[in-house]
Amino acid sequence: xxxxxxxxxxxKGAEEMCRSRSSIAARENHRLRHQHGRGPCxxxxxxxxSSLGEEGFRQMKEAFTDILDEYANHQNIDENVAxxxxxxxxxFQRYYSNHYEDIKQALDNVEIxxxxxxxxxxxxxxxxxxxxVSHSYVMGSFHIHPRIILISDGRPTDFTESISxxxxxxxxxxxxxxxxDITRHIGKKHPIFCIPVGRNPDLRLLEFISAQSRGGKMxxxxxxxxxxxxxxxxKIASNLSFTMExxxxxxxxxxxxxxxxxxxxxFTEMDLNxxxxxxxKKFLYQPIxxxxxxxxxxxxxxxxxxxxxxxxxxxxRDWRYPDQDKFGPGTVIGHSKRDGxxxxxxxxxxxxxxxxxxxxxxxxxFDVQVCNEPRILNDELIATGCNVTRGPDWVWNDQDGGTGxxxxxxxVGRDGIVLVQWENGRRGTYRFGNYGFFDLKLCDxxxxxxxxxxxxxxxxxxSVETEPCTKEDQGLASKSSNDKTVExxxxxxxxxxxxxxxxxxxxxxxxxxxDTDGPTYPCTRNQWLWKDDNGQxxxxxxxxxxxxxxxxxxxxxxxxxVTIQDKGYRVVMAKSKQINLATREIAEVKLLKNDSSP
Length: 598
Hints:
Elements: H1 2-31, E1 41-47, H2 53-72, E2 80-86, E3 91-97, H3 100-104, H4 118-126, E4 137-139, E5 142-144, E6 147-152, H5 173-187, E7 192-196, H6 203-211, H7 224-227, H8 230-238, H9 251-261, H10 269-280, E8 312-315, E9 330-335, E10 341-346, E11 351-357, E12 365-366, E13 368-370, E14 387-390, E15 407-412, E16 417-422, E17 427-434, E18 437-438, E19 440-442, H11 448-460, H12 471-477, E20 514-515, E21 527-531, E22 537-540, H13 542-554, E23 559-564, E24 567-572, E25 577-580, E26 586-592
Parallel strand pairs: 1-2, 1-6, 6-7
Antiparallel strand pairs: 2-3, 4-5, 8-9, 8-13, 9-10, 10-11, 11-12, 14-15, 14-19, 15-16, 16-17, 17-18, 20-22, 21-22, 21-26, 23-24, 24-25, 25-26
Helix pairs in contact: 1-4, 4-5, 5-6, 8-10, 11-12
């Protein structure tokens, strides 16, 4: 008990000392505000500890210098830079300034050595991130919030006592936990970008730190120059002709707008990727005080009456929005702090908030409803909404609740790190391609196990706004995951060709996904039809037809994923084909224009 009390006292004392030093640094930063740049605010934390090794120390200096050189190439952005070194001496080397050559000289007298009190460095930055010292920089409708750029091997040491040097024995889980706690606090409002360097960086911790912050991510040190153009590319994105509410996830439209707005400018492929990423995550660049998108709370599960994280949804009875969903399904990624609101990421990649149940209005409003439409990948390795189980490189004990349990992907990072919610309610980040490691493997979206998983989620939702399931599905949901007789207990299917799904026990007042009333054709123009094995042409439903037409209008050579009777199909307009994603069987499709007969 005495040892624990001493340790707790040491932590509190160290925190108070760090906060005191942070306040002093903030006052000095404020006093020197005449040298501040007017652009975005960046606090660099440069790890100089001995654990980096000589090569890591060189990488750190190279990455930092590359970023400053690129800042100097874009004086109109006027980046604001402060520097904290972390090693034998953990202190501000430079307060906010736009004198980049002078800032680079700050490292001339810094030597490698000492421990890695990264937690102290984060505490030092706290007060200097506040409004009276730093500022959010506004570019059109984009607000660039003050950010931290950590160049380190991510191996923190004890910050409660002085350590002469860094060695593996000084790196404990407790130190990593303290660093995670302070960065979680900072990351609620500010992005934290981590650039791994050194002979053996802790990539898992650095990815965790950046992923839990508001818009942060991990950067390869060789791409430091490109990262330095992030503010410049944000300014370019702010000039494109689309709103904060719509079409930020449409890469084709974004790039078309880019060419039209900047016809003389040449963009690299990496610039295009950055601009698209910025546009697709516009909610990260809104004022922090606005409630339009509370990204810091986006992945929290708060209300047991609402669909659990990972549930699949589609537009519901009270839908009042344009085609934000592109007529397709999406995934619940979180519950908002506002009562009765969900955070949904559509399969197109856009994220929006929707009403589900009690919002203080009478009657309750349901913009979305729970459905059983699986996530179908479209040229991706993995995506939000996919279902996974533990993979070949799994090293996380029973975080997933045990072998065979299924989880839902809530977020996919660019570096092969994904956020997953498991059946037992636990969430965690895992590798899926990160440095060649796969902690997870994808589930077959049409397997009985995945169907049971989603039907179980739907059954746990107390609201009536759940898509009705068939008797067959109800029976499927009640079976245990190790039941080997699932296939034998299925209800019979009408005798039609394989790949055409019409179940004979569905009783629903919903409009059908497919109209099959024989040769009676619509009077509307641009009606798409598909041909069955008997040579009969069948109409697509109005909703599916509208989605196909929308893709066709945008690009006649494109294809579109549609869901019919809970089955996924790819419609390839240019080749007049419909491909069953499960069986790969092909049916002919055609476009009926005007009032012509097929």
